[in-house]
Design brief:
Layout: H1 11-24, H2 30-40, E1 45-51, E2 57-62, E3 65-72, H3 77-84, E4 88-90, E5 95-103, E6 106-115, H4 120-140, H5 146-150, H6 158-166, E7 171-173, E8 177-184, E9 192-199, E10 202-210, H7 214-233, H8 238-252, E11 259-267, E12 272-278, E13 284-287, E14 290-294, E15 313-316, E16 322-326, H9 328-331, H10 342-355, H11 360-374, E17 383-390
Antiparallel strand pairs: 1-2, 1-6, 2-3, 4-5, 5-6, 7-8, 8-17, 9-10, 10-11, 11-12, 12-15, 13-14, 13-16, 16-17
Helix pairs in contact: 1-2, 1-4, 2-4, 6-7, 7-8
Length: 398
């Protein structure tokens, strides 16, 4: 290595220097923190590649947003690191290192480094960077548009802007459960939405589909999701929640409009799933790599049309179960010559991803890409997935 090569990092110093830089920098100076991370890891250059809303491309973060053309996730070293969640090293003289960055499982992008070589000391320091840099990015994106600009490979519609601002992270995880969701079409999404919260001892979740398209449908889904959140945070039971949100939709929107939904909670210690089906397609269960079938629940009327709950369903999940919630836009989408995607095809994709041990966020990404390939990227209705992987109870005593 030449005398001008960046010094090797001392992993014990990396965290402190990054904390100092993040504290001193303005919210929009994210590129400076990225540059410092690269320097601390002995890189000649460092880039933050931010995944776009559709999770198909990366954009390189510059001082005021994205720089350069979108770069595909498929068939690239950065895409491999993003999909597996594991650091990837490729090439020689120079060596390219791709470090995946995520916040509690929610994938942000890749720290791409150009280094002369890569050794154990740098790899140890990279662990510190992986732990801290996502926290810096997530904290600062509430104060600046820089990171959110980099998520766009093309303009968002106003309806999609509203919907993405409504969503929780696309992935969340604990030792007991992982939950991942996605929306399509990402840049023009209308009335579909999902929500989740990782609360002590349970996962609370919801998936909704408002009738119609555009901003009118988004406003309905916004009302539904926030109504569900309000009831959940107030500690309301499922029946009270259903009735309260149904009254919101009925009272604020034209007669005959409605929102289909499924919502409930998963007890993390027992795997007991308690939920309501408000006129929504049934979720699909895969257990031990085998498709068990749709999980039954008697449908109540959609939110806005109903005044009673037909059934509160209790479903027992086992460790390793994968439960996929979806909107009708997934299974009803068709090829240009009219072949429906269908529930069987959706289940087949879920089984194959399970047998391949594909991580939950990558599973929903690949399935939704298959949906878009099936219809030649021409959806006539929004398509939304919410995947729950129940990992089993966690023993804190260990």
């Amino acid at each position: 290595m030449s005398d001008t090569s960046p010094p090797r990092p001392r992993s014990t110093e990396v965290l402190a220097r990054l904390v100092d830089a993040a504290t001193d920098a303005s919210a929009f100076d994210l590129h400076r923190v990225v540059d410092l991370a690269g320097t601390l890891l002995g890189a000649r250059s460092a880039n933050l590649l931010v995944a776009d809303y559709a999770l198909r491309t990366f954009r390189r973060l510059g001082r005021d947003g994205p720089v350069g053309e979108p770069r595909s996730l498929e068939g690239t070293l950065a895409g491999r690191a993003f999909g597996t969640g594991e650091l990837a090293v490729g090439g020689t003289d120079p060596t390219l290192v791709c470090i995946p960055l995520s916040d509690h499982g929610d994938r942000i992008g890749i720290l791409e480094l150009d280094v002369d070589d890569w050794g154990d000391e740098q790899a140890a320091a990279a662990v510190q960077v992986q732990a801290l840099l996502p926290l810096v990015l997530v904290t600062n994106r509430r104060h600046t548009d820089v990171l959110l600009r980099a998520r766009r490979s093309r303009p968002l519609s106003p309806a999609a802007e509203m919907q993405w601002d409504l969503l929780p992270p696309q992935t969340g995880s604990t030792a007991e459960v992982s939950v991942s969701g996605t929306l399509e079409p990402a840049y023009e999404v209308g009335g579909d939405s999902f929500d989740f919260a990782l609360n002590p001892g349970r996962l609370d979740f919801a998936i909704v589909d408002a009738v119609g398209h555009g901003i009118a449908a988004v406003l309905m889904s916004v009302a539904a999701i926030n109504g569900l959140r309000n009831a959940r945070r107030d500690g309301a039971n499922l029946i009270s929640t259903y009735l309260a949100v149904s009254r919101i939709i009925e009272g604020q929107f034209p007669p005959g409009t409605f929102v289909t939904a499924q919502f409930g909670s998963l007890a993390l210690g027992t795997g007991e799933l308690t939920w309501i089906n408000a006129g929504h397609p049934l979720p699909l269960l895969v257990r031990d790599g085998t498709f068990i079938g749709p999980v039954p629940c008697a449908p109540s009327m959609p939110l806005g049309l109903g005044d009673r709950v037909e059934e509160i369903r209790t479903t027992s999940l086992q460790p390793g179960d994968r439960l996929l919630f979806h909107t009708d836009g997934v299974i009803e989408t068709r090829t240009p010559d009219g072949v429906e995607f269908g529930a069987d095809r959706l289940a087949d994709h879920l089984v194959r991803a399970t047998l391949d041990q594909t991580p939950p966020p990558e599973t929903v990404r690949r399935i939704i890409q298959s949906v878009m390939t099936h219809n030649d990227a021409h959806l006539v209705d929004d398509a939304t997935l919410l995947l729950v992987d129940y990992l089993g109870p966690h023993n804190d005593a260990g």
